[in-house]
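In response to reviewer comment 3 from the previous cycle, which asked for concrete evidence that the modeling workflow produces usable outputs, we include below a single protein chain processed end to end. The sequence was submitted unchanged, and the resulting structure tokens are shown without manual editing.
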Amino acid sequence: MPSEDKFQTILEDRTIYIVGPRRLQNRLLSQFVSRETGAVCIEDANLERIFGSKPEEEFQMSLFLWDALGGNLETILNELKQQHASVLNCYFVPFNVDPSNGHEAQALGYGVRGFFYEEDSPDQILKGIRAIFSNELWVSREILTKCILEQRGRGENPQMEPMEPNLLTTRETEILTQIAAGATNEEIADRLCISPHTVRTHIYNIFKKINVPNRLQAALWATQNL
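The workflow returned the following structure tokens.
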């Protein structure tokens, strides 16, 4: 697993936007995340104003943490529908999510990369941020499975390359199977006795070969082709 110092270096080049009306909470979260990760944190109550502040391409690889306290995950989803083109190349994660809300699978379909719940500790949030910046989904296996089943039921299939003989190597197939089961990079590395860096390299090659942009689409591809 990459060291804390290495993650600090990686995140120093990233920007995290904290979106929501609770200024004191957002300021404290911003200070904590910035101190622990080295990332630049910016607070604002309005997503549309953020996206209007500079060209969309400058938001690529940025993380948006959006306050969902009070059960307004549906409001967030409606906003995402309007801003969907803008958030495709961003990491978007609601925090303060009510575990009983039940809209996680729908949110993943709009490009959300994970969820931080009301009871999550600061350390869990940091771990999730680092996982998301490593191009992982920060969701439970149950939610990932539910999302895959819902998308398959609606016929929402990713644009994929035709299945070719020997398209993936044996190792790539093993890793893709683990992704479809909801495993993190660290878990895959432990199970296959390889380094996390090697896992990330394999995942990059897998995505390129099967023509998918993220783990959710890769998992859906796997359920249809493996």
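The chain has two domains: 4-139, 146-225. We consider this sufficient to address the reviewer's concern, and the full set will be provided in the supplementary archive.
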